[in-house]
Amino acid sequence: MKLWVNGELRDADAATISVLDHGLTVGDGVFETLKTVRGRPFALDLHLDRLVRSARGLGLPDPDLDEVRRACAAVVEANPLELGRLRVTYTGGPSPLGSDRGDAGPSLVVALGEAAHRPDTTAVVTVPWTRNERGALTGLKTTSYAENVVALARAHRQGASEALFANTVGQLCEGTGSNVFVVVDGRIHTPPLASGCLAGITRHLVVEWTGARETDLPLDVLRTADEVFLTSTLRDVQAVHRVDDRELAPAPGPVTAKAMRVFAERAALL
Ligand code: PLP
């Protein structure tokens, strides 16, 4: 496997960045996960826009998007895969301990792995921790993902593939790596960005293509909604068949099944 590190394509075991990289020592970095289909990154421009927004939110210099594009193309070409997950990581770069960022400039790493098969339906759990809808990092895709790691581990222990958060005022927010949609009375709703959720690329496309409404929703909506589904780059649209101990049947329900179809058809044309 070859990956891109700071301007060069390297073998994965020979690729290095500094152990004093600010991304490693204090989580000062941003990232994107893209899907590649037969070597083509899906929705690359939307991901690059979000990478820049996240970097600006952290006060990192704008990434050189020409280099990021070249890096993505080189990594994809060097590692032919039918369905891949492309990871772009952009960090503050090396800096002496205890100081702000050093002079060496940011680090860029682009790597590719095989995208795991995602079933059409999945189980989710709610977690007792909250997303902060007004935090400094709200809405940024930063490498400070440890809270998601802890919540996802809890979901896995309970036989689920995703954990869902409420925000600090008890509204439904998002998953550790996905956005959430509910169907109530035949209409699709998803929490607004003001809930503190990430502006998911898949969420954006699903809102545009299905007319889903952005609505403040209490966490409890998960107990009564007719259907629930998740969206993310690697899940696309994925139906939820269990929320905590509540079974939802059939899953996918009719509205979710239609959203899955619409997404697959429209995405194939992008
Ligand atoms: N929310 C969080 C916290 C995420 O990390 C992700 C993706 O990794 C998403 C939502 C879904 O975003 P996208 O559809 O762009 O993959």
Structure write-up:
Pathway: Cofactor biosynthesis; tetrahydrofolate biosynthesis; 4-aminobenzoate from chorismate: step 2/2. This is aminodeoxychorismate lyase. Homodimer. It comes from Streptomyces tamarix. The protein has 270 residues and is of the alpha+beta class. It is built from seven helices and 15 strands. The longest helix has 16 residues, at 254-269. It is globular. The chain starts with a strand and ends with a helix. The chain binds pyridoxal-5'-phosphate. Pyridoxal-5'-phosphate binds at residues 33, 174, 177-179, 198, 200-203, 231-233.
SSE layout:
Blueprint: E1 2-5, E2 8-11, H1 22-26, E3 29-37, E4 40-41, H2 44-58, H3 65-78, E5 83-91, E6 107-114, E7 121-131, H4 146-157, E8 162-167, E9 172-175, E10 179-184, E11 187-190, H5 201-210, E12 213-214, H6 221-224, E13 227-232, E14 236-243, E15 246-247, H7 254-269
Parallel strand pairs: 7-8, 7-14, 11-12
Antiparallel strand pairs: 1-2, 1-6, 3-4, 3-5, 5-6, 8-9, 10-11, 10-13, 13-14, 14-15
Helix pairs in contact: 5-7
The protein binds pyridoxal-5'-phosphate (PLP).
Briefly summarize what is shown:
By secondary structure, this protein is an alpha+beta fold.
General shape: globular
Compounds present? pyridoxal-5'-phosphate
Number of helices: 7
- Average pLDDT, all residues: 96
The ordered string of helix (H) and strand (E) elements is EEHEEHHEEEHEEEEHEHEEEH
Structural class: alpha+beta
Radius of gyration: 19 Å
State the total count of DSSP E strands: 15
Distance between the first and last residues' Cα? 28 Å
Assembly state of the chains shown: single chain
User: Spans with pLDDT under 50 lasting ≥5 residues?
Assistant: none
For the largest beta-sheet, the strand count, sense and barrel status come to: 9 strands, mixed
What share of residues is helical? 25-40%
Beta-strand content: 25-35%
